[in-house]
Design a protein that fits this description.
This protein has 502 residues and is mainly β. It has 4 helices and 29 strands. Strands 17, 20, 21, 24, 25, 26, 27, 28 and 29 form a 9-stranded antiparallel β-sheet that branches. It is elongated and about 115 Å long. 29% of the residues are buried.
């Protein structure tokens, strides 16, 4: 019994030691966190520090509460604060209670709240300030700009691509078309002159294709984004993944009230004016039609508290959810094919008019007769394989007469095709506040992105109409999407010591 007890105790000790070590190491892991700090000072009417004053931080969206006290300099500090809107309340004996509302905290910042000057009076009396004076960043030398939820809601983007907002930031040049979201969204963008070495993060986790390091694995839809921030230079060490600039995104969380959105974005080539070239170029006896340009983007989102009326989370301050989906349907130009296809004469063995680019005749030789050229450069009908002739029917007939010298007798067929490219983006997030010291969240993002690639290996479609949807010869279905699971648990050990595990 003694041996067993000692052995069990050693095992338990080792397990607890390992857990303690993992917990300690997790706080040192170099994730680029999205959480921030709130600091401020509390003084009396004579501008002297108020020591030991209780300070309460309350989230406007979730009602979550955190507590702290002022130190001997009258300073208070809240670490690991999630981006959002807060109110700061001070209740000190001998002074009127004071509440500073409208404290908007963005990701990765140390937010200095305006100095709170208490007035003499009873703590049951209170003074409230509903908004904050504009802040000047003094705690960091970084150059950055934030696009907050107000801008995200009020500015409309043609392609609903969140990277379209980045061109609003000084020092950023964006040459991409951005008709729609794409895994190659970083292409065409440079920050302070750098086209490469860019980094994109979602909730503090790098979201880059590790194969190319130039494209993203997934992109949250606009309705799921709470904040977008661009760090252009002089940013902190935890953003040392790349040197060319960092783009960070924070996803939305649920609040005490239910909120939802729904939208439909529709574009079609019939809404576009036709071009002069189309109207003056005859194809198949009619003016050249507009190139297909068709998008349907449907989006919805819903978020709020998780509770059981009169039984669990009745105050709606513990559990919250957020869910959003965006479905993108597109039918657009897949490119132009310019190739040579067998002529009607060549299909029956007549090569008497088949010429090289320099105008000389292409000699057709008889392999059964010492490679002597066929008479009149024509293959006898008896030598033609009927199976081969049937295979030729998969090739379209020529429809193009070249005018450039380099294309004569080389290209006789052109086709401009279009293809579908469906995409479904899903975002799920759940937040839970165990206590004023312990909180956490789980977030899931998935991009189901399937691109139909045309003219890659096969240079024409078999419907010969130039419009390729779900038919045609072997369109390559290329999956581009990715997904992410993320979880964060934050424990406030003391007001100045916090452990965050991601």
């Amino acid at each position: 019994m003694i041996n067993k007890t000692l052995c069990g105790g050693n095992v338990k000790s080792r397990i607890f030691a390992q857990l303690a070590l993992a917990f300690a190491v997790s706080s040192l892991t170099l994730f680029a966190q999205v959480s921030s700090q709130i600091v401020g000072t509390v003084v009396d009417p004579a501008d002297a520090a108020v020591v030991g004053a209780p300070v309460t931080l309350t989230s406007t969206e979730t009602g979550a509460v955190r507590n702290a006290q002022t130190d001997n300099l009258g300073t208070y500090r809240f670490t690991n604060v999630e981006p959002g809107t807060y109110s700061v309340t001070v209740k000190a004996s001998g002074f009127k209670a004071f509440t500073q509302g409208g404290v908007v905290v963005t990701a990765n910042e140390t937010h200095n709240v305006n100095k709170i000057s208490l007035q003499l009076g009873n703590v049951t009396e209170s003074i409230s300030v509903t908004d904050e004076v504009a802040q000047v960043q003094l705690s960091s030398s970084e150059k950055s700009q934030t696009v907050d939820s107000k801008d995200l809601d009020s500015l409309t983007l043609k392609g609903r691509d969140l990277f379209g907002y980045i061109r609003l930031v000084p020092g950023v040049v964006d040459t991409a078309n951005r008709d729609v979201t794409s895994h190659s969204s970083l292409s065409g963008m440079n920050i302070n002159g750098g086209f490469t070495a860019l980094n994109f993060q979602v909730d503090g986790i790098t979201d880059m294709d590790t194969g190319s390091n130039t494209s993203v694995q997934y992109e949250p839809n606009l309705d799921s984004v709470q904040e977008l921030k661009v760090l252009t230079s002089n940013y902190q060490a935890e953003f040392g993944h790349t040197s060319g600039g960092t783009i960070t995104v924070v996803t939305k969380n649920g609040t005490q009230q239910f909120h939802g959105t729904a939208s439909w974005n529709h574009r079609h080539e019939e809404f576009n004016s036709d071009t002069w070239a189309n109207n003056h170029t005859i194809k198949n006896g009619a003016a050249t039609p507009r190139v297909p340009y068709r998008y349907n983007v449907e989006t919805y989102s819903i978020g709020g508290p998780i509770f059981v009326p009169k039984h669990w989370n009745r105050n709606r301050t513990k559990a919250f959810f957020f869910w959003s989906q965006e479905r993108t349907g597109q039918f657009v130009s897949g490119g132009t094919a310019l190739q040579y296809t067998p002529t009607a004469l060549e299909r029956v063995g007549d090569f008497s008019q088949s010429l090289n680019n320099n105008g000389t005749l292409i000699k057709v030789l008889d392999p059964d007769n010492g490679n002597v050229q066929f008479a009149n450069n024509m293959i006898p009908a008896s030598r033609l394989n009927p199976v081969g002739q049937e295979l030729l029917n998969f090739f379209p007939l020529p429809n193009f007469v070249a005018t450039l010298p380099s294309q004569v007798n080389v290209d006789n067929y052109t086709e401009q095709g279009s293809a579908i490219h469906p995409r479904l983006n899903s975002v799920l997030r759940g937040d839970y506040y165990f206590s004023s010291k312990l909180s956490g969240y789980y977030r899931f993002i998935n991009d189901a992105d399937y691109m139909y690639v045309l003219y890659d290996g096969v240079q024409f479609s078999n419907d010969h109409g130039g419009i390729l949807g779900d038919k045609g010869i072997a369109p390559i279905v290329h999956p581009n999407g990715g997904h992410s699971d993320a979880g964060t648990l934050t424990y406030t050990i003391t007001p100045t010591l916090v452990n965050e595990t991601t």
